[in-house]
Please model this.
Amino acid sequence: MTTAPTTTPDHAGSVGRLLDLLDVERLEDNLFRGQSTNAGWMRVYGGQVVAQALMAASKTVNDGRLCHSLHSYFIRPGDPAHPIVYSVERDRDGQSFTTRRVVAIQKGRPIFNMAASFQAPEPGLQHGFAAPDAPPPENVRSDAAWALINADRTPEPFKTLWTTRERPIEFRAVDHADPFAPVAMPPRARHWCRAAAPFSVDEPMMRALFAYASDMTMLDTCLLPHAIAWSDPRLQVASLDHAIWFNATPDLNDWLLMDQDSPVSGGGRGLNRGIVYTRSGQVVATLMQEGLIRLREG
Model:
């Protein structure tokens, strides 16, 4: 078994660097530039593009309006060696709602698009599902700990990447499954998640940070009934689209519970959905994602 690194992780630094990464640079009124990361990804992580696109759109919205829903499509894989340009279309600024469209462009071609709607704060009728039963996060082993436990079975370059990379968002899987010897399981997964260190930002950035985290575990859920190891060379997986409905601002300074399931798969695609709860049981967001889960024969 691989032992834990002897150096102390710089959690505060990793969270700060992630927040800087998501805070896109304004080039013109409706044009923004986002940098990428050299964290070892072979393509740009989808949650990064969702979060940067949301920040670009948010920087064109006034009057304290916050994103209440976004719908996005991944078109091409992004290259982490190059920046991404975000072009924002200001479709409408109404009395209560604001709508924006964003296209992410790299090397002259669109790699992603998003439609987002923003709303002025207002009171309204309230209800929400009760949170599912789950052990507290303190009783659940972290993904970083599992990466070390499984290091001797992990092929390179993933072994080095998973055991040494920064983890600004900590995930703890309630329903842990062996990634190298999977057995068929019901398509349901629960994860606790939280920033690795305390932080202070405004609400638009808080929602963008959550958008970054929301793409991390969704696609795994639809693979659970099929007992396929992620390292199986026949398997091709990728996020196709991603949608978020914000019911409140998710604050990753405290633990959030992501309750995920997959109602259906077929045609080389799997549909995943999630409801996100605060530790006290309030619903703060709802997620939907369809992913490519293509199994090549031979």
Summary: The helical segments are 11-22, 46-58, 143-149, 158-164, 203-214. The CA atoms of residues 79 and 221 lie 26 Å apart.
